[in-house]
């Protein structure tokens, strides 16, 4: 046992192995993303491991989604081809959480599939690990801390094959592995179903917004005219600024969550770097967007109850006259897919990474809205019901994920045993 030995925390009948006792290791075939296409042999790029929300790849099911390398199979060395049960580990990560992120290959039909750039492939040299158990055992903290210990680098963390071989795992019997995998897969199925339901609700919401926010479908009781209005008639730039204080915390804007808190570590870093830096103040119901990321949907209504700070890179706007314009309606219209597509055509700049929708161009954009604020409110209320329904489903999804996480901690350490 090494410096990581903690066998006392595991059942006495579980056994400790080094990875090199369990697996043979291969590297991947380094092909740049630019040389991949929609035709040829399925290819697994390390970036696709990092962006995946799954801990496995079913080659048959995911065939159409996988990038391809357009080369003849006979020209590919067999050592790069992935078989059923292989574990593919990303050997590079930009953050600690991504170190050693891996997927298990489900490929019972032996569809040609190449392990790619920045990957390490663990191929069974024994039959001691049940295939489906591989989806979960790498999440055990005992293994995770070894991955992080052996990772090297500063801005990018790397894992070598030689270091991966040193990692230890403490395993139950294969029968117990199967029972554990069966239990955890039940949670995975529940999570997958909830995610599909959320996507269905989001698509329904998009269709509803397309009909209601364009006036194609009118609500009963409303016959007033809709008019074209430029956003500068509705919105004004908020230019209040402040340093970070105990009462004014630093927040950020994400496409998924809107205005959301930064981590404590992030706040401390900014405080250390520049105590006098001025940040933009935003209040509840402000409309916030990222000029450099608006074309991808980085815009939201601020739902935080208290004033918070945002980086100077963001634009902060507010409704001039709330007696004429409903903030929820305006926010829903501005965050709709149709409007985001319009904003995407307005981005200026020479490099795609630096293209931005400047606030003057943003405010000069024309929108089509009902003159009657009652109709605005009625529309936003209906769409808001869908949004709250989606939020509740997302909370249920997060609860399932937390339940699974807690269950994994118990089952993968043997604190809770399954009946065999």
Structure description:
This protein is an alpha+beta fold. The protein folds into two domains: 7-171, DNA methylase specificity domains (Adenine-n6-DNA-methyltransferase TaqI, Chain A, domain 2), CATH 3.90.220.20; 225-371, Adenine-n6-DNA-methyltransferase TaqI, Chain A, domain 2 (Alpha-Beta Complex), CATH 3.90.220. It has twelve helices and 23 strands. It has helices at residues 19-22, 46-51, 134-137, 141-150, 161-166, 174-212, 231-234, 264-273, 327-334, 337-344, 359-363, 373-411, and strands spanning 15-18, 23-27, 41-44, 56-58, 68-69, 87-90, 92-93, 102-106, 113-115, 119-124, 157-158, 168-171, 226-230, 235-237, 241-242, 251-254, 258-261, 279-282, 287-289, 299-301, 308-310, 315-319, 366-370. It has a five-stranded mixed beta sheet. The protein has a four-stranded antiparallel beta sheet with strand order 14-22-19-20. A three-stranded mixed beta sheet has the order 5-3-9. Helix 6 (174-212) runs antiparallel to helix 12 and helix 9 (327-334) crosses helix 12 (373-411). The longest helix is centred in the middle third of the chain and has 39 residues, at 174-212. It is elongated.
Question: What's the short story on this structure?
Answer:
By secondary structure, this protein is α+β, with helices and mostly antiparallel strands. The protein contains twelve helices and 23 strands.
């Amino acid at each position: 046992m090494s410096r990581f030995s903690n066998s006392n925390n595991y059942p006495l009948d579980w056994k400790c192995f080094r990875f090199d006792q369990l697996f043979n290791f291969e590297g991947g075939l380094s092909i740049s993303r630019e040389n991949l296409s929609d035709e040829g042999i399925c290819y697994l790029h390390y970036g696709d491991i990092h962006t995946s929300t799954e801990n496995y790849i079913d080659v048959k099911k995911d065939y159409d989604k996988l990038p391809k390398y357009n080369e003849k199979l006979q020209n590919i060395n067999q050592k790069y081809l992935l078989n059923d049960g292989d574990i593919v580990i990303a050997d590079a990560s930009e953050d600690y959480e991504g170190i050693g992120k891996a997927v298990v290959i489900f490929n019972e039909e032996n569809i040609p599939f190449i392990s790619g750039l920045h990957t390490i492939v663990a191929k069974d040299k024994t039959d001691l690990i049940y295939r489906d158990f591989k989806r979960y055992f790498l999440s055990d903290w005992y293994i995770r801390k070894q991955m992080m210990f052996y990772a090297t680098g500063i801005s990018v963390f790397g894992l070598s094959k030689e270091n991966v071989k040193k990692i230890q795992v403490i395993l139950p019997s294969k029968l117990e592995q199967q029972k554990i995998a069966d239990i955890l897969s039940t949670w995975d199925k529940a999570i997958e179903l909830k995610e599909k339901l959320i996507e269905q609700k989001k698509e329904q919401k998009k269709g509803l917004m397309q009909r209601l926010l364009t006036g194609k479908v009118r609500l009963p009781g409303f016959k007033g005219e809709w008019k074209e209005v430029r956003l500068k008639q509705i919105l004004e730039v908020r230019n209040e600024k402040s340093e970070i204080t105990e009462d004014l915390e630093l927040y950020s804007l994400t496409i998924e969550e809107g205005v959301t808190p930064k981590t404590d570590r992030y706040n401390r870093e900014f405080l250390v770097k520049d105590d006098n830096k001025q940040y933009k103040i935003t209040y509840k119901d402000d409309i916030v967007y990222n000029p450099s990321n608006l074309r991808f949907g980085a815009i939201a209504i601020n739902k935080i109850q208290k004033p918070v700070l945002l980086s100077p890179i963001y634009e902060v706007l507010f409704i001039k006259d709330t007696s004429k314009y409903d903030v929820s309606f305006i926010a829903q219209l501005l965050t709709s897919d149709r409007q985001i597509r319009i904003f995407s055509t307005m981005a200026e700049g020479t490099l795609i990474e630096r293209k931005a929708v400047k606030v003057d161009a943003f405010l000069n954009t024309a929108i089509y809205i009902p003159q009657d604020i009652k109709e605005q409110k009625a529309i936003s209320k209906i769409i808001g019901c869908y949004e709250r329904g989606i939020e509740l489903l997302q909370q249920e999804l997060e609860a399932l994920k937390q339940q699974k996480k807690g269950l994994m901690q118990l089952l993968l350490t043997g604190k809770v045993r399954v009946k065999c």
